[in-house]
């Protein structure tokens, strides 16, 4: 985690220089990509691949930029007197990386929460939360749970429900080659966990 922290905390201020750790990590990633290319039977020296290790190194830091920060901190708490009705944000795009194979799983997240005492969050913040947890090596169940836990911890709502629907390229491009299969995961907290009728209703709304 220490090295991940370097990448995400470095270079934030205007004109600030990259921390030395970041350059070293990029160089090591480039070396690793060259090693992969050589060992799959490619020639890392051929012109078409000349920039590839550097490009892939930068891409990996982007794809895994959710490491080393706490996405829950992005959930600002707004006090809106009287806000107590269900809030649903559906179809949030999701691009994450399966931690078993390091290839993408792609889908949508749907989030609902029932505010308590007028505590709500900015709507964009929920999409930011999804991005923060998605940009790291993941499994879908943990991602789903982390989204529900973050909203519960920050907003202390009466209930939270999260549904994630995704296609795992590790199940499609390789292995079992289950084309068209979709994985659906659900996490519920508060009222949606304790009351089966409420749970059923909110999940139906999220999946409709
Ligand atoms: N529960 C869960 N499993 C996942 C997720 N992403 C990938 N997997 C599974 O992780 C498992 C890894 O199993 P292994 O047997 O170690 O790896 P493998 O030989 O490549 O497995 P196959 O994919 O069956 O060929 C596979 O069953 C994947 O389908 C995820 O988000 N959640
Ligand atoms: Zn996988």
TrEMBL record:
It is an enzyme of class 3 (hydrolase). Zn(2+) binds at residues 98, 101, 170. Residues 30-206 form the GTP cyclohydrolase I domain. Pathway: Cofactor biosynthesis; 7,8-dihydroneopterin triphosphate biosynthesis; 7,8-dihydroneopterin triphosphate from GTP: step 1/1. The keyword Nuclease does not apply. GO terms for molecular function: GTP cyclohydrolase I activity. Keywords: GTP-binding, Hydrolase, Metal-binding, Nucleotide-binding, One-carbon metabolism, Zinc. It comes from the Bacteria. It catalyses: GTP + H2O = 7,8-dihydroneopterin 3'-triphosphate + formate + H(+). InterPro entries: GTP-CH-I_C/QueF (IPR043133), GTP-CH-I_N (IPR043134), GTP_CycHdrlase_I (IPR001474), GTP_CycHdrlase_I_CS (IPR018234), GTP_CycHdrlase_I_dom (IPR020602). Its EC number is 3.5.4.16. Residues 1-22 are annotated as: Disordered. Pfam families: GTP_cyclohydroI (PF01227). Homopolymer. Belongs to the GTP cyclohydrolase I family. This is GTP cyclohydrolase 1. It comes from Carboxydichorda subterranea.
């Amino acid at each position: 985690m220490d090295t991940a922290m370097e990448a995400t905390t470095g270079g934030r201020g205007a004109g600030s220089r990259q921390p030395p750790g970041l350059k070293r990590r990029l160089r090591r990633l480039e070396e690793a990509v060259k090693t992969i290319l050589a060992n799959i039977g490619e020639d890392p020296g051929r012109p078409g691949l000349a920039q590839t290790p550097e490009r892939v190194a930068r891409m990996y830091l982007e794809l895994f930029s959710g490491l080393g920060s706490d996405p829950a901190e992005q959930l600002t708490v707004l006090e809106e007197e009287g806000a107590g009705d269900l809030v649903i944000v559906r179809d949030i795009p999701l691009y994450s990386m399966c931690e078993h194979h390091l290839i993408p799983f792609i889908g949508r997240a749907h989030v609902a929460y029932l505010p308590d005492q007028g505590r709500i969050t900015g709507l964009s913040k929920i999409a930011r939360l999804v991005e923060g947890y998605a940009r790291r090596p993941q499994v879908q169940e943990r991602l789903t749970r982390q989204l529900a836990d973050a909203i519960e911890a920050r907003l202390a709502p009466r209930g939270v429900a999260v549904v994630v629907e995704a296609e795992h390229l590790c199940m499609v491009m390789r292995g079992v080659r289950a084309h068209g299969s979709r994985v659906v995961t659900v996490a519920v907290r508060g009222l949606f966990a304790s009351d089966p009728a409420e749970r059923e209703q909110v999940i139906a709304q999220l999946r409709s």
